[in-house]
Structures are given as C-alpha cells and as structure tokens.
Amino acid sequence: MQLTPLNLLGLAVVVIPALLVALLGVPFLWGRPLSERWIGRIVPTGMVLGLLASLGVLGLMLVQHTYQVTIGPFNWISLPGHAPGEEGGHFHFTVKFVFDRLSVPFAILSFVLCGTIGAFANKYLHREAGFARFFMQYALFVLGMIVTSLAGTIETMFFGWELVGVSSAMLVAFFHERLAPVRNGLRVWIVYRISDAALLIAAVVLHHLHGEGDFAALMGAGPWPEGHALLSANQALIVGLLLVVAAAGKSALVPFSGWLPRAMEGPTPSSAVFYGALSVHLGAFLLLRVSPLLDTSLTLRLVVVALGLVSALLGALAGRAQTDIKCALSFASLTQVGLIVAEIGAGLRYIALIHILGHACLRTLQFLRASSLLMDYHNLENAIGSRLPPFSSPLGRFVPQWLRVPLYRFAVQRGYLDAWLTDYVARPFLWVFRSCDALERRWTDFLAGGNSRESDRVGWQAGTLDDLSL
Fold it and tell me: For the chain, what percentages of helix, strand and coil (3-state, to nearest 5) are there?
C-alpha cells in the first residue's frame, strides 16, 4: 500500500477513534478514570480531528475524481483448508477499509452526530457518577461505527458490528443500580446475539462459497453501487436472507421490534446516538453495502420490501399509542427505517442513502430536544391555565369505530411481538436447556449417590418461565 496523502488521511479516520478509546480506557485499567475536565477536552478534539480527516478524504477524492479508495488488505488470521485453487480454499480474517460513495458520507455523519451528542452529554451528565464510564462506552461505539462504515470485508464489518452491539447494550443498562435497565439491556443483548449470529453464519457461508468475504470480490470491483454480485441466484438468496435477519435484528425490524422501546432505559444521549440516529440505521447500511446481492434475486428484493413496509406500518401504529416521548420517537424512527429498507429493496439506493442522512440528523435533534420540550409544554400549560388540546391524526376519521379498539390494543402491545418471541422462541429453548440441566444433575447425583429428586427441584426452581416477561 502506497502512503499517499489520501491513504494517510484514510488511516487517520480509523486511528483517531482507536486512540480515543485508548486515552479513555487505559486510565480505567489503573483504577483512575479521567476527570470530567479532561474528558471534556479529549472527546471534542477527537471528534473534530476525525471529522476533518473524513472531510479531507472526501475533498481529495473529489479533486482527484476518485470514486473508491482501498486501504489494505491486512491478513490477520489464515487457516489453511483445501488445496489452492479449489472452491473454499481456506478461511482468512482480512482487515480492509474502503472509502467510496457509501462509506464516506456515513463516516462523516457518524463524526458529526457523535460530536454533537458528545458535547450535549458533557453538560447533560455533569456530576453523574458514571460520567467517565459513559464516555468510555461512547468511544467504543464511535470506533465500532467507523469500522463498520468503512469495512471492506465482512469480517471487518463483523468486528465493528460487535463493538456497536456491546457498547449499545452496556449503555442501555447504564443505570445498573436499578433493575429495569439491567433487564432491558439483557433483552437488547439477546436480540443482538441473534443478529450477530446471522451475520457470522453469512460470513462463513460466503467463505465456503467463494473462498473469501471481500465485498469487492463478491459484489464486483466497481465502485458502489455499480457492482454485480458473482453469486448465483440461489446462493444470493441464502446469503441475502441471513443478512436480512442480521439487519432486522440491528435495526429493530419486524419481528425484532420489541426491544426498541426497552432501549430507551439508557441516558438520553445514548438513546439519541443509538436508536435515533446511527445504530438503528446499521441494518439499512448493511443492505446498501450488499445491494448487488438484491439485484441477483427477485425473491430477496420482495422480502426486503415487504419487511420494510410491515415494519413501517407497525412503527406508525405503535408510535401513536405511546405515552412516553422517547418511546414515541423510537417508533417514529422505526417507521422511517422501514421506509428506507423498502426503498433499498425497490432499488432506490441513492434515495435511501439521502433518507438515512436526513432522518438521522432530524431524529438526533428531536431526541436531544425531548427533555426540554416537556418543560416548555408544562410552562405553556401553566401560562394558558389549561391543558393543550390533544393531537388527532386526520387518518383517524377513516378508521371505523369497531376497529379502533383492536388497533389501539395492537399498538399498545407493540404488535404482540414480545409475547410471540417469548412464547414461541424463548420458552422452547429455555425448556430444552433446563431439561438438559435436570438430566445432568440426575446423572451427577447418581454417580455421587445423592438425592436426584431434590436436585431436579433445585434445578427447575433456579429460574421460572415468568422470568422471560422482562
């Protein structure tokens, strides 16, 4: 790799968030986290430098009429398999970063919004006991977003994908002295595990089918979105469905939408940056990155369009029945993300990218304004001496009276998705695991000459099925 000014700026875009994680994380290892004053200096400096480096990359690419810049690949892990030249020759973990018309705008968006939210959080969390812990997890999220945005291979994307998931779940459970945030953080983490497993399986399948997970080799060497997938229609359908499951879990699409309001247990800055602006759009970003796969299979495109429209409809219904402003905004985000996914399935790639950029900025402003907006409404009601008139949607006039109550119940229960996942997905797994635990206890007690019935009773009472109703 030649060290041109463009490549050096590209490396700086990735290295600056990594240095931010090191500067905030190393003092934690010594048991002496940085003070608010130092964090308030380091974080904005890192965000500004990262933004300037991203803008520098964009400027040089425009001046040089370059549509794609590649840094790497750096071969990290290589596991030999079949003979060279055979299909699925070997598995290797390759680190590669790509700057193109998709990744550069998303990286700039990440630095702009993370810098804005970091400045807000510096005041919002002043004298909070977990101030340093918040910004440490925040730095992990920034690094994960940049790595995911610039990933040139599916393995590199998985690394950034995991950083985003870990930091998101920890910040949902930020107020860990209370039970509800911890439970909801665990619920978010469980859904993320399903999403991560689907992405990991897709990576393994790609390596088996094509011998590597490089997006340029799989989607064509042309700059996004001009590539053409090198997989057959059936292969693209299998890999594409796995990637759709990964995108649905990360972006809270149906049937994984139930965790979205639970994630509002975290601080307002984390809710804004994760589920209003950036993290909730990662599923759509993944579908944009692998969009040549969608062109290969009509069935896959129809699945993506249907999933997006159903998610948008659920978000529109559930958002109108929420009494908490953060939950209402989260479902409003789901509505727009569903429309974005439908646009991707319909082939409107540039429109979907512009939609992501505009929606992320708007929703960030709304989340950060939400807390002070409630105070403004309260002061306005005190000034006029009465409650403000409730908002009524004009579409409500066309809904018959007999349908309003079922629709309201459906919206309040958020489509019954939590109950469905608990009863038909989690409970069978839980029953199998606890049955295996009881059998293991019987076997060990038999070998030790103990009381197997008492062991079974203890094993089954260690947790009840009601624990799933978090």
Answer: 75, 5, 20
